Amino acid sequence: MKQAMIIINPISGKEDALEHVRNVEELLHDAGYKVTVNETAKEGDATHFCKTACDDGYDLVVSIGGDGTLHETINGLIDQDHRPKLGVIPLGTVNDFARALQIPLNPEEAIQTLTSTRVKNVDMGRLNGKLFANVVATGSLAETLSSVSSDDKSKFGALAYFKEGIKDLRNPAQPLVIQHDGETWEGQSPLFLAALTNSVGGFEKLAPDAAVDDGLLHCFIIKDLTILNTITIGISLLVGSLKDHKDVVYFTAKNVSVRSLESVRTNVDGEEGPPLPIELSIIPRHIQVIVPEED
After folding, report:
1. Band (59; pLDDT cuts 50, 70, 90)
2. 128: left (phi > 0), else alpha (psi -120 to 50), else beta?
């Protein structure tokens, strides 16, 4: 019999989370799976559960929660000889990974996607030995974005990040040295982004050229932030032309290193990450994700 593991963050989606688990269990049972349910209680639980699923030869792992739960879950797949297929039920406030793969943001609709026969081989990023699914950001603005509250994300969606970014104008840019595929950029920057998908922070057109399986990091260096160009950069974000903005350096790469003479932290998949220096690379088509059937 096929085996499926559900990894659920019971806090995501509030009281609806456990109801979604019951619906997933019922659907997977009907599809011929023996189902195990594991609830996360602390940081690292989802990674541990997913590693167990790999070790025990599970066929499917279903992540129920937000981008943070998903980030932990995929880190259980790193360097595993056996990697189960991944199902995603988004219960978070942003859900970039689901957006990029056109998985419905409505949980009940996403649950029905688990019966799809269509599977997508998706790139993963590697940061200092760990995996990420969507984006790595660094610079003073990235530190500010890590402090965006869940309440603001719920109220304002993607604009919560823009709202918080406006407050950051008084903070200085930081010195960054960014090396990629034999080239070097050095200068003052409040924000560097390396994106795997088109959706970052709920902005679905931040990197419109990014595909989940193109084998590339799509990178943006913001060179300057004033009130005026923050507004114009915000407009560029919304219309999908950020890479063409005069104060933005855009490039694609397979390997990127970022360092600074100052203490600078990172934001990884929407959560606080490690301080610089960091080494980024791409792992092409590393995981299989169940996605909706094509129309």
Report:
1. very high
2. left
Contact in structure between 73 and 48 (CB atoms under 8 Å): no
Q: Which residue type is seen at 46? A: A
Residue 96 pLDDT greater than 80, yes or no: yes
Half-sphere exposure of 41 (CA within 13 A, CB side): 2
Three-state SS at 256? strand
Residue 79 vs residues 7, 26, 86: alpha-carbon distances, Å: 20, 31, 15
| Residue ranges in 128-226 assigned as alpha helix (H) | 140-145, 150-156, 159-167
Q: Which residues are tagged catalytic?
A: 271
Angle at 117 between CA 116 and CA 121, to 5 degrees: 100
Secondary structure element (H or E) that encloses residue 69, with its range? helix 67-74
Please tell me the pTM assigned to this model.
Answer: 0.86
Q: Are 124 and 133 in contact (CB under 8 A)?
A: yes
Q: Tens of pLDDT along 21-32?
A: 999 999 999 999
Backbone angles phi, psi at 286, to 5 degrees: -80, -30
Q: Is 181 helix (H, G, I), strand (E, B) or coil?
A: coil
Alpha helices of 103-253 — where are they, by DSSP H? 107-113, 140-145, 150-156, 159-167, 227-239
67-74 vs 45-55: helix crossing angle, rounded to 10: 40
**Is-contact 121 288, C-beta < 8 A?**
yes
Amino acid at 65: G
Instruction: Give the whole-angstrom CA distance, residue 88 versus residue 241.
Output: 29
Q: Extract the tokens encoding 38.
A: 């594991």
> Would you give the distance in Å from CA 164 to the centre of its chain?
19
